[in-house]
Design goal:
This protein is of the alpha/beta class and about 350 residues long. The chain folds into 2 domains: about 5-90 and about 135-225, P-loop containing nucleotide triphosphate hydrolases (Rossmann fold, 3-Layer(aba) Sandwich); about 230-300, Protein-tyrosine phosphatase receptor IA-2 ectodomain (Alpha-Beta Plaits, 2-Layer Sandwich). It has helices spanning about 45-50, 75-80, 95-105, 115-125, 140-150, 170-185, 195-205, 220-230, 245-255, 280-290, 305-320, 325-335, and strands spanning about 5-15, 20-30, 35, 60-65, 65-70, 80-85, 155-160, 190-195, 205-210, 215-220, 235-240, 260-265, 270-275, 295-300. The protein has a 6-stranded mixed sheet with strand order 6-7-8-3-9-10, with helices on both faces. It has a 4-stranded antiparallel sheet with strand order 2-1-4-5, covered by helices on one side. The chain has a 4-stranded antiparallel sheet with strand order 12-13-11-14, with helices on one face. The protein binds adenosine-5'-triphosphate. Adenosine-5'-triphosphate binds next to strand 2 and helix 1.
Length: about 350
């Protein structure tokens, strides 16, 4: 991949005998919004810590903005803004004062520092609340302030670990939109770790599915879906006005269409699995054959199905090798259930 800004090669981390990250190879392009998706204990935070030079890999390398994170962590720190899942501020100071303090600590020029802080507060949507004490800030407001804290250092890459944890659905939507806009407007590369499939799907250009320290798959939603569901990438359900008189005849008629892989007739519902979207052709055929249609529904495979499918495959593989991965499944569902 050309212009990769993050390059992980054979990245591995052992904690004692536990392999937390297992031979990870990954490249992320400049300007991309990449989602690292996986259940509890998958190794996301450990990977991030290695990218920031905060923990040493047992093997392999993490290169960020051209610098080896283990050998040159200070250079990486200058280029990367990291927002952990729980951002802390001085509660007795206003948000403006907090950010001003951070800006000065980071050596921003005295002349324009007030303007710059104000500009950042407005950029993250806190212009009207910037003189409130952070003790009075909601979780969502603190996350926005955390983002301003990261942005004021003018990073090339921002790494966000579970940035939407504990924010209400409207807040999540707004926060993710903000991240996406910032990435587009300012060309910032974003790496986002999350358990939340739907959120990742909304905002990321590409995702990596991470389970048990291994990157099981990476790509955009379309590519992942194609790889997994190439035999049945599209499911069309047609509801007929009446139960078909001859089910076998209907099934064999539909099966003759090249793109159709499987047909199931149940009552007046017909499920047709196809390799591509041939919904108009199917509807035309039913009408030509004199069937009344009361409903047509086409199912798209989203990230949830993709993730579950990779997850199930991985479970099956591990079980067949005598390992129990039940812990991953339990912890994943616990965290996504709320
Ligand atoms: N400092 C540590 N010492 C020993 N084991 C650790 C340490 N940090 C993490 N681990 C273990 O390494 C594995 C990966 O943990 P990590 O925190 O990287 O996962 P994660 O995907 O970020 O999970 P979560 O979503 O719960 O934060 C887990 O089994 C965890 O218990």
């Amino acid at each position: 991949m050309e212009n990769a800004i993050i390059e992980l090669e054979g990245l591995t981390k052992f904690y004692g005998s536990l392999k937390a990250v297992d031979n990870l190879h990954l490249k992320i392009k400049a300007g991309e919004v990449f989602g690292l998706l996986g259940p509890n204990g998958a190794g996301k935070t450990t990977t991030i810590l290695m990218m920031l030079g905060l923990t040493e890999p047992s093997a392999g390398t993490a290169k960020v903005c051209g610098f080896n994170a283990t050998r040159d962590p200070i250079s990486v720190k200058r280029k990367v803004g990291y927002m952990p899942d729980n951002v802390g501020f001085y509660d007795n100071m206003t948000a403006f004062e907090n950010l001003l303090y951070i800006a000065r600590l980071n050596g921003l020029g005295i002349d324009n520092v007030h303007d710059r802080v104000q500009e950042m507060m407005e950029l993250v949507g806190l212009g009207a609340a910037m003189h409130k004490k952070t003790s009075a800030y909601s979780r969502g407001m603190k996350q926005r302030l955390g983002l301003a804290d990261v942005l004021i250092r003018q990073p090339e890459v921002i790494i966000l670990d579970e940035p939407t944890l504990g924010i209400d659905p409207t807040g999540v939507k707004e926060f993710l939109q903000l991240i996406r806009e910032l990435s587009r407007q300012q060309g910032i590369t974003v790496l986002l770790s999350s358990h939340h499939l739907h959120q990742v799907q909304q905002v990321c250009d590409r995702v990596g599915i991470f389970v048990g320290g291994k990157l099981l798959a990476e790509g955009n939603i379309h590519q992942l879906s194609q790889n997994l569901f190439s035999e049945e990438s599209c499911l069309v359900t047609i509801t007929l006005a009446d139960t078909p008189p001859d089910t076998a005849e209907l099934e064999s008629m539909l099966s003759e269409i090249g793109a159709v892989r499987k047909v199931t007739v149940s009552g007046n519902g017909v499920d047709i699995s196809c390799v591509e979207n041939i919904t108009p052709e199917l509807v035309r055929l039913f009408v030509e054959k004199g069937f009344g249609i009361t409903g047509v529904y086409r199912k798209e495979y989203g990230l949830e199905e993709i993730y579950q499918q990779y997850f199930d495959n991985n479970l099956t593989e591990n079980v067949s090798h005598g390992k129990s991965s039940g812990l991953f499944q339990r912890s994943f569902f616990r965290k996504t259930a709320n």
